């Protein structure tokens, strides 16, 4: 899951932590094969011993490496946000008493102009953020598809772009949450 999302352990920990979960990881070594093109060169020489023609022969080799791929071992609620149905969401009794004490005063304060929030501005902001999120998701999808097709440096560049899109998506989601 983490590999498919292009996330590091730290990013995954932060992501799940923001939702109210602690994450424990296992490092599972996995053998990865990658095809690499190397070139073999040969030369034709004239009677003086100087090269006259260079032959280039591409040779495709399969390189095997072992990498540690983090996998999620356990996810446990940390008690914040929606991490568990066991989280106590009731208010302390002292705050309930304070609220009851202030409840019957009968004075209604009109919010100051600075306190009033223009609902149209909020709706427009959310529409802009949602549009940006859709654009980022489309870019992420294109980058992951490109990474699946590419090898070597091109694949790394596409994966870096997908990772950047995920970070941008996280930033937009935080902005939307405000």
Explain this structure.
This protein has 178 residues and is an alpha+beta fold. The chain has a domain at 116-178. It has helices at residues 2-5, 9-18, 93-103, 119-149, 153-177, and strands spanning 21-45, 51-77. Mean pLDDT is 76; it is low at 83-91.
Spatial sequence of strands, sheet with the most strands: 1-2
Write down how many β-strands occur, each being a DSSP E stretch of 2 or more residues.
2
Q: Overall 3D geometry?
A: elongated
Reading the helices and strands in chain order gives HHEEHHH
The assigned structural class equals: alpha+beta
Percent of residues in beta strands? 25-35%
Q: Number of helical runs?
A: 5
Largest sheet: 2 strands, antiparallel
Average pLDDT, rounded to a whole number, is 76
Low-confidence spans: pLDDT under 50, at least 5 residues?
A: 83-91
- N-C termini distance: 28 Å
Over the alpha carbons, how many angstroms does the gyration radius reach? Answer: 29 Å
Helix content: 40-55%
Brief summary:
The protein has 178 residues and is α+β, with helices and mostly antiparallel strands. The chain has helices at residues 2-5, 9-18, 93-103, 119-149, 153-177; strands at residues 21-45, 51-77. 46% of the residues lie in helices and 29% in strands.
Question: Topology, pairings included?
Answer:
Blueprint: H1 2-5, H2 9-18, E1 21-45, E2 51-77, H3 93-103, H4 119-149, H5 153-177
Antiparallel strand pairs: 1-2
Helix pairs in contact: 4-5
